[in-house]
Every structure is written in C-alpha cells, then in structure tokens.
Amino acid sequence: MTFDTKIAIVLRDDLEMWQELNVTAFIASAVVGQNPSIIGENYRDASGNVYMPMIIQPMMIYQADADSIRKAHQRALERDVMMAIFTMDLFSTPNDVENRAAVADKHAEALDLVGIAMRDTKKTVDKVIKGLKRHP
Asked: CA-CA distance, 61 to 57, in Å (whole number)?
C-alpha cells in the first residue's frame, strides 16, 4: 500500500532510551488523534480474541541534535505543518494541564524541543526533515 502522506517522528539524539520511548508514544498518539482516519480495524486471533486496531501507515523515526530539531521545527512552522511537540520540561510535569502550561509559557524559539511529529504530504515532510538521519 502506498500513501500520499508521510508520518515523521524526530527525536533529539541526547535522550535516554526511556525518554525516547516516552516521547515517541506521546507524540505518535497526537498524530493519530489528529488523524483518526488512519486507524485500521480491530485484530482478531484464531481463538476469537479481539485486539485494538493500529495505525495503517508506517511512522518513520529520525534522530537530530538540538540545533537540527529546532531547524526542522522552524521549517514545519514556515510550511504550516501541524505538529506534535514534546519539550524537556514535559519530563517534569505531572499531567496534561501542566504540560500545556509549560509549552504556553515559552515562545516557539525558546522551546527546548526533544521530539516533534507530523503527518503531511510526502513532499512537505521531506522538506521539513531534510538532512536528518533515520533513528538507528
């Protein structure tokens, strides 16, 4: 199956493994929440057990240093790409209300980004993530 869109997740390269997984889960959920049509059907095993559906489109994960993730963020903003973001501050906030407050407290250029995720046309996403390497 081919897709006209691309989903990209960009993680900062200085995160611990648990942080990478946490950030990926949170920002991937935002992409799905913004695009419910990309959720497939329930899974069923041969025993009749039903499992939750998953996203039908691959998510490509990239890695970037702090400067490169800021550049990708800026390119996405310039192209009006809807993004999910995760900042370093969010590791120390206890809930969604305080997460949003921590982001609202800073201008875009002052956000200490550790992860961004987006879904847009392949061409647009490729321009945003230009020069980034896939996560190893």
From this structure: 13
Element (H, E) at 7: strand 5-12
Average pLDDT over residues 107-128: 98
Range of the domain at 82: 5-134
Q: How many domains does the chain have?
A: 1
Rounded CA separation 125/128 (Å): 5
- Give the sheet arrangement for strand 133-134, strand by strand: 83-87, 113-121, 5-12, 59-64, 133-134
CATH number of residue 40's parent domain: 3.40.1490.10
Q: What is the pLDDT of residue 11?
A: 98
pTM: 0.95
CB 114 within 8 A of CB 23: yes
Residue 68: closest CA among 76, 79, 60 = 76
Q: Whose structure tokens read 């935002």?
A: 30
